[in-house]
Structure formats: structure tokens, C-alpha cells
Amino acid sequence: MSLKAVSGxxxxxxxxxxxxxxxxxxxxxxxxxxxxxxxAVSACLAVVYPHMAGLGGDAFWMTYHRGDGAVRVYxxxxxxxxxxxxxxxxxxxxxxxxxxxxxxVVPGMVxxxxxVLREYGTMPLAEVLExxxxxxxxxxxxxxxxxxxxxxxxxxxxxxxGTARVYLxxxxxxxxxxxxxxxxxxxxLRKLAAGGRDVFYKGELGRAITEDLQAQGGLLTxxxxxxxxxxxxxxxxxxxxxxxxxxAPPNSQGFAGILALHILGHTDISAVPHGSYEYYHLLVExxxxxxxDRDRYLADxxxxxxxxxxxxxxxxxxxxxxxxxxxxxxxxxxxxxxGEDAAFAAVMDKDGNAVSFMQSLFHExxxxxxxxxxxxxxxxxxxxxxxxxxxPNVLEPGKRCFHTLMPAMALREGKPAILYGGQGGDxxxxxxxxxLTRMLDYGMDPQEAINEPRWLWGRxxxxxxxxLKLEKRLPGEVMDKLKQAGHQVKxxxxxxxxxxxxxxxxxxxxxCLEGGTDPRxxxxxxxx
Length: 528
What we know:
Helix content: 25-40%
Strand content: 15-25%
Low-confidence stretches: none
Mean pLDDT: 94
Number of helices: 17
């Protein structure tokens, strides 16, 4: 299943679905820039990968515009509705994971599309949405990953009639390669193309969504939609092997990835063989620290300050590295269940503009609620709020939720050198750290870094145990040493989809572009 890196000299697009990649490349070939292409990719993913992302979800956009000469982040995540008070769930231990009451957060995705195009785009919204509209109305072939998700979630989907009509047509699971139609979603996209974001937040689509939700006992209102806006902000930054590492700020978990790299910066990883016990043990232990601090502090900073200055300081990383034993695994933390799915994509154009972005419905198919006749599947991101009043991520009206989405960018001499990211809750900082160490410490190209065996520590995918899952491609003696050190090792199949999808674009030292996509998914890279 190992793939070869794609190379180019002018532009490159990578995404977890080949049709979305092609949509972005098409915009560039028409004369659009990286921002036009990125929105086209994002919208197309909302159609061809509907279990991962959609108009009813959130997104984070990391952007570099050559004219600005700086990285900026657009936080397109929504806030809890005004009726989403903790008291409404009195007597409950946790918030509903699915159904209308899990749709507690206003979707931020559509606002993000218009914000990115308004700030940096050259094409009208209608033009960049055209591929998505076409695949929704005329149908698109069901990819293997979507078929797998439909097979696993068929029973849950069947309990929601509006959703089942779309994704289980005729009561059957669509087979790989068959054509799936989402005509109501296509009509919603056409309305957006004609009227812009206000159709969604202040007009026809917003009314249809909120009226249907309220009829089912949901809590979002039209007032919540009308009040929504995203934010342009600056990334949080760190340093690793001479590169500046940029991540989305809280409410994103991005700082956990930087902290892990800062900890690893106190040792020479390249001095140990790649794929050895020492390699996996050091990375897992550093990431445990980052995830522990994330769990302790991450929340909406407008409600609960996150002490980034301390967490990302050299002294703090040094003290945390000193806590790592080279022979014993640290005790497992009590882990919270994470959302399962997201979609990462990236674009670089001939002028040096770059976009690294992620979008999600939180769990596969989100809340499972397709609102009214809009065809829009709503996220269940709000289910990750806590009901513990002492927790920084406690549910409060108007609050953004703890977010796992963390699109990343590594800069060399102030310019984008690596765009990278991947799906999977706790898995995102883990796969990112694997990617970056393999490229910067071991000299691998993006595809080589992706092809190598991966691990997953924690409770991503909703499991109860904080196991260290390892692909069977690892040597047996490495697994044995990890077990002896106290890691709760569980082996999974080679190229297991539990590891999520990771993708990357790199500008190498010769100025050429190199791209990699995950063989675990349905993605592709187009470069020229």
C-alpha cells in the first residue's frame, strides 16, 4: 500500500478525496489562487465525504498570503446557543452524543468559506461551489471509506428518517462505486452560491434548520445563527529543528502538538534508529504530556484563560522532558472520549500563497440529524462540552467548545515549508508529530513519512481503554520492549483506518513541491 511522493514546481493540492483534490486543482488551472482552490476543496469534501465534514460543521483555516508575509488563522468554529445551559441537562452525567440535543453549536463552516474568499480570494463563491453542487445534484461515486462508515453506522443512521433517506437510499447501504445523490444538499449549496453566508445565518437556510431542530427538541435558534461570526487571529507558535511551527490557537488543541515538539527538542531523536523502541517510546511519552496539559487547560479562552506563555516556554518543556523515563511508561491519564473524524487538506499556488485547513462534524455523521429539507447534516461538536461546573470546558451559552481540529504549518525563514495535518481526536497531535520528526529528523519526504507504521495512544474513536495501538508492521521485538516498559499495547492491522488520514505538502530545499496522501483513505495529490 506504500505510495510515492508527488512532485511539482508551481502548485499543489492534497485532500482525503480525489474528487475534492481535483476540484481545487481545477480552480488553480482557471486562474484562481490557493484560497479559491481551498474553498472549492472544502465544499467538495462536504459532499463527497459527508461522514467527515459538511455545511453543518466547523473548520479552522491557517493561511499565508504572500502580500501579508504572515500566517493568519480563521477560526470558523461555532458557539453554543443561548438556550444551551448546563441546567437543561440536570441529572445527566454527560451530554447527548447524538440526536437533536447534541446539535448545540452553531455551524461555522459556511462563514469560513465567505471570510476566506472575502479576505484573499479572486473568484466568486458561486464559481468555487460549482463542483460541490454538481456532485450533490448529479451524484457522486461512493468511495471505500464512506462505504465503510455507512456499513458501520447503518443502524444509527436508520433511526433518523431524513438522514436515512439520503445515505441509506431504499433502506440499503450504497456499495462502493455506486452513485449517491444529495439533491437537497445541492439545492442548499445553490442558494448559498446566489445569496452568500446570510442565506445560511440570517435567511432561508437558517430558518429551515432551526425550525426543524426545535420541532425535534433541539436548542439552537435563529437568533443564535444570526449572531454568529468567526474570527481572524494569529497562530500560536513554537520552534523545532530550525522551523517555526504554527498551530491554531485555543479553542483548538494545536498547542499540544507544539508542546510535544518542544519536549522532544531536548533530545536528539535522530540519534536513535527510526522505528526503534526508543523512537516510539520517546514520542508517545512526550505526547502524553501534551495531551495531559490539553485536557487540563483547553477551553474557549474568552471564558477560561489558557496559560500558553508558560506551557510553551523552554523551561516548562525542559521540566517535562526531565519527567520522562527512558525505560518506563508514565501512568495513563483518565482520557475523555474524542470525536472520530475530520478532513484535512492543503493548497499551495504558484505565487507562494498557502492554506492548511481542517473541517469536521465531530463524530462520523455528526448528530445524525439532517435538518428539514436542506440536506444539511448537523455536527454533534457540542456533545463534547462538560457538565462539570469546575471543568474549563463546561457548557455555557455563547461558548466555543474544546476543539480537536489543528491544521498546521511549518515555516522556514518566514515562509511556508510544510503544510500538514490529519484526522482523529487524540490522534491528530500524534500523527503530526510522527510526520514532522520523520521529515525533519530522518530526512523522509512527505509520502515516506506517511507510509511508515503508525501508533495511536488514548481513547480516540470512543474506546474505554487508553491503549497504545500499534500497526502490525512494527517489528515484534519493538512491540515486546514497549510492553515490557509498561505500555498497554494492542496490535491492529497494517494501514489500519483507526490511525486516521494524514496528508502533507512540503517545499524542499530546491524549491520544489512534494506531496503525500494517506493510503488508508481515498485521497490524492495533484501537483505540477
